[in-house]
Design goal:
This protein has about 270 residues and is an all-alpha fold. About 75% of the residues lie in helices and about 0% in strands. It is globular. It is found in: Cell membrane.
């Protein structure tokens, strides 16, 4: 989202909460309705028999209010946006939230060793995530520069303008490309990073709002991986449910397509 806001040339809060959030809520509601009817249709078609499973309760010693801590970065971005309080960068907010969690854990346990042990796990997770993100960003920059060099951007703009409604056609082309790439690779980040570098140049040359191109492409990359049988989340869910990944993709297909259509329509209506 941070990278998408940068490509859209909008403040993070405005992009995430004022532009993307309403579109996402509309898509989620429509997907939920489509999901309900699509699953019932597939259950009747395959004559599925439902039964209640015994689920062992997860026991934890952490207080219930710890569930709020993962949401503190979002609250921090909203509070420290320069309107309600001092304007802080997202990285500053994240570091502050980590320190807040560490202080709360120390007050609860009075064990510095336990606190630093937990922080070490968090830092290792951050390192693994950042390593893959950095590699994707570098590869995306090289890929975008290569496409520009071979004339892909000018060809894409010419194709879109030949249909008369250049902005809409360009948006649909980027959505389809990103969706297919996500379905093929099983990754939601890689396809988006690969093409987001092109957005500012495409938007400037076509005279459209960068957010008009970024938002549908961002959602297409996230939705596309749920249609990939090689996606990590699909493989994990199919393993837990003890069904084929292709069955999971079949059950997610219609709701995802409905959600993507809603995103495109809502973007056309809400993003100038």
């Amino acid at each position: 989202v941070v990278l998408a806001a940068k490509a859209a040339e909008m403040p993070l809060v405005d992009f995430a909460f004022k532009t993307t959030l309403p579109i996402s809520i509309a898509a989620i509601v429509c997907m939920a309705v489509a999901h309900f009817f699509w699953q019932r249709y597939l259950d009747k078609k395959s004559d599925e028999q439902h039964h209640i499973m015994d689920v062992s309760e997860i026991k934890t010693h952490a207080p219930g209010f710890y569930a709020i801590l993962p949401f503190t970065p979002i609250l921090g971005v909203l509070i420290f946006d320069g309107k309600w309080g001092p304007e802080l960068h997202i990285i500053t907010v994240l570091v502050g939230c980590i320190l807040l969690a560490a202080v709360i854990e120390f007050v609860r346990s009075f064990s510095a060793k336990q606190v630093f042990s937990g922080l070490e796990v968090a830092y290792r997770g951050m390192a693994d995530a950042f390593a893959s993100v950095v590699m994707l960003l570098v590869a995306a920059g090289v890929f975008a520069q290569g496409l520009s060099t071979v004339g892909f951007i000018s060809g894409l703009i010419g194709l879109a303008q030949s249909f008369g409604t250049g902005g809409l056609i360009m948006m649909l082309v980027l959505v389809v490309i990103t969706m297919l790439a996500a379905m093929t690779t099983g990754s939601g980040n890689a396809p988006f990073y690969a093409f987001v570098e092109l957005i500012p140049k495409l938007a400037a040359q076509m005279g459209v709002n960068p957010a008009y191109l970024v938002i549908p492409m961002l959602q297409a990359s996230n939705l596309g991986r749920t249609l990939s049988p090689v996606s990590g989340v699909v493989v994990a869910v199919s393993g837990m449910a003890k069904i084929s990944p292709f069955d999971v993709v079949k059950r997610t297909s219609v709701p995802v397509i409905v959600g993507l259509v809603v995103v495109i329509v809502a973007t056309e209506l809400l993003v100038p």
